C-alpha cells in the first residue's frame, strides 16, 4: 500500500499564497510506485504474420486485466523547469472496434474532430501501423492520411504526424521495418514526419532492437523521414539507445510512455539509470517526453457522480476497478478547473505539461478537441501540481503498466 507523509488539502484557486505553505518547495513525499506488469504475452512466442491481431489483442487483454497494486517504496518527485509543452492528439480509437467500438459510420465525425483539433493548435498527431482491429488494421493511418490530404494547405502545414512501427517477432534485422515504413507512408499519403519504435523488445528479444533502430536511423539519414522516436522504453535502455544513435549523428527526438495522474511512474525516480526519474532523464538527454493515455482512457475526464454510464467492455471494467478511489483526486481537479471554467480533462492534461511532457489525448469529437485546446490557455501553479502529485501517488490502484516497457 502506498505511504504518504504529506496529504495536502486541495484548495480553491484564489491567486493568493494560501496553498503555497503546504504545497510548494518542501513537499518531501514518501511514496509507492507500481513495478509494472512483467508478463510478456504468450502470443509473442508464436510465429508468423497470421498472429498479428491475436498478439495485439492479447497484449491489450494482459494490459487491462493484470492490474497490480503498487508495492511500497519511498520516493521523491523531481520538479520540471521551463515552459510546458503543447498538446497533441492520439488516434488509437480510429479503427479499433475491440476496445473503442469503432464503426466506419464514425469517419465523418472523426474528420471533423481532426480538423477542429488542427485549427485549434493540436497539430501533433500520433498513430501506429498496428492500430485498427481485425479487418480495420491500418485504419488509423489510412484515415489520418485521408484527413490530412483533405485539409487546406495552411492547416496541412500545422500537422506533424508521428507513427509507431511495431517490432513484431518476424520483423528482423536492419531492414526489418523498411516495408512497414513504406506501407505506413503510403497509408498516410506521405504525411509522415516521425517514426517511432512502438515498444522495446529488450525484455524478451534483446537482440532484435538495435538492428531495427539502426534501420530506422538509416531512414532518417537517407532523408526519408525527418525524425526518430521510441516508445515504452525505460531509462537504462533509453540511455543506451540515445548514445548509440548520437554516435552516428542521429538525434533521438522523443520518448513516448504512459503518463497520467493514474500512471505517474515516469516522474518518479527510476533507479540507477535515472535517479531523478524518466522525465528528468529526457530533459538531461534533450529528448522530448510524450505522455500517452493522459486521461487514463477517458477516466480522468469523468466528473464525480455525473451519472454517465461507464463504457462497455474492457474499458468499462477498468473504470469500475479504478473509479471508487478517485473522489479526493476529482474534487481537487474540480477545484483547480473551476476558476478557468475548464473540464477535469484539462487539469489532467495540464498536469502532464507541468511535468514537462506533451500529452497526446485520444479525440473522437470536436467538443473533446475544443476542451483539450482550452487547456493551452492556462497552466497549473506549482502548489496545484504538488497537490495533484500527492493525491495521485496516494492512490492504491493505478493504470496497468505496458507489458513491453523496458527497464
Ligand atoms: N505508445 C503506446 O504504446 C501507446 C499506448 C496507448 C496509447 N497511445 C497513444 O496515446 C493516445 C491517447 O491515449 P488513449 O487514447 O489511450 O487515452 P486517453 O487520451 O487517456 O483517453 C482518450 C479518451 O478520453 C475521452 N476524452 C477525450 N477528451 C475528453 C474530454 N475533454 N473530457 C472527457 N473525456 C474525454 C475520450 O473517450 P470517449 O470518446 O469514449 O468519451 C477519448 O477517446 C492514443 O490515441 C495513442 O495515439 C500510445
Any idea of the CATH class? Alpha Beta
Q: Could you give the count of β-strands?
A: 8
- In DSSP terms (H or I, runs of 4 or more residues), the helix count works out at 15
Distance linking N and C termini: 23 Å
Radius of gyration: 20 Å
Q: If classified by CATH, what would the architecture be?
A: Alpha-Beta Barrel
Order of helices and strands: HHEHHEHHEHEHEHEHEHHHEHH
The 3D shape can be described as: globular
SSE blueprint and pairings:
Blueprint: H1 20-23, H2 52-65, E1 88-90, H3 97-100, H4 107-119, E2 124-126, H5 139-149, H6 153-156, E3 160-165, H7 178-187, E4 194-197, H8 206-221, E5 227-231, H9 235-247, E6 252-258, H10 278-285, E7 288-292, H11 314-322, H12 327-337, H13 344-354, E8 357-362, H14 366-374, H15 382-393
Parallel strand pairs: 1-2, 1-8, 2-3, 3-4, 4-5, 5-6, 6-7, 7-8
Residues 90-93, 126, 164, 231-232, 256, 292-298, 301, 311, 343, 345, 360-364, 368, 371-372, 402 line the site of NADP nicotinamide-adenine-dinucleotide phosphate.
Structural summary, described in words:
With 407 residues, the protein is an alpha/beta fold. 37% of the residues lie in helices and 10% in strands. It is built from 15 helices and 8 strands. α4 packs parallel to α14, α12 (327-337) crosses α13 and α12 packs antiparallel against α15. The protein is globular. Bound molecules: NADP nicotinamide-adenine-dinucleotide phosphate. The site of NADP nicotinamide-adenine-dinucleotide phosphate (NAP) has 29 residues, from β8 and α14.
